[in-house]
Amino acid sequence: MITLNVGDKAPEFKALNQSNEPISLTDFRGKKVILYFYPKDNTPGCTAEACNLNDNYADLTDKGFEVIGVSPDSIESHQKFIAKFNLSFNLIADPDNEVINKYGVWGEKNMYGKKSMGLLRTTFIIDEEGKIEHIFKKVKTKDHTNQILEKL
C-alpha cells in the first residue's frame, strides 16, 4: 500500500466528476486543494462531512481553497447526492479505485469489532505547487472545516 507524507508531491490524477467531465489535480495548480476521500454518498458521516464543507464553502474559497470529494460511488450517485444537499464542489467518481489507490486510502477498517476492507476517510491539504501540506486521518465529520482551518 502507498503511504503519503506531508511534503510529498501529491499524486496526479485525471478522473470524471459528477458532470462526467474530466478533472485533474493540475487543473487547480495555484490554489490550495482540500482533497477529501469519503466512503459513500448519503450515509450519515459522509453527509455530515460534505454538508460541513459546503456550509463553509464561501469561507474556504475566500481563503484560496478548492474542495474536491472522492468516493467509489458512480457519477449518477454523485449527481443525486449533490442535488439532495445542494453541494457546491466537485465530487470525483472513482468506482475502480484508481485515485483512491494512488493516495493509499484503501485498507482494513474495524467497525464494531468487524474487520473489512474499505475506503479510509482521509483528507489531504495540497498546496499551490501540488505538495501535501497536511493529512487528516481522524476526520471530525461534523466540524471538518474548523479542523482544517485550525491546522493551517
Explained architecture:
A hairpin with a 4-residue loop joins strand 1 and strand 2. A 7-stranded mixed beta sheet has the order 2-1-5-4-3-8-9. It has a two-stranded antiparallel ribbon with strand order 6-7. It is built from 5 helices and 9 strands. The longest helix has 12 residues. It is an alpha+beta fold and 152 residues long. It has one domain: 3-Layer(aba) Sandwich (Glutaredoxin).
Task: Detail the topology: elements first, then pairings.
Elements: E1 14-17, E2 22-24, E3 32-37, H1 44-55, H2 57-62, E4 65-71, H3 75-85, E5 90-93, H4 98-102, E6 106-111, E7 114-119, E8 122-126, E9 132-136, H5 144-151
Parallel strand pairs: 3-4, 4-5
Antiparallel strand pairs: 1-2, 1-5, 3-8, 6-7, 8-9
Key descriptive features of the protein:
152 residues, alpha+beta, Glutaredoxin, seven-stranded mixed beta sheet, two-stranded antiparallel sheet
CATH topology: Glutaredoxin
Assigned CATH superfamily: Glutaredoxin
Main beta-sheet annotation = 7 strands, mixed
The second-level CATH architecture is 3-Layer(aba) Sandwich
The 3D shape can be described as globular
- Strand ordering within the main sheet: 2-1-5-4-3-8-9
CATH class: Alpha Beta
The total tally of domains equals 1
Radius of gyration: 14 Å
Amount of helix: 25-40%
Q: Strand-and-helix sequence, N→C?
A: EEEHHEHEHEEEEH
Content-based structural category: alpha+beta
Instruction: Give the end-to-end Cα distance, rounded to a whole number of Å.
Output: 28 Å
> How many helices in DSSP terms?
5
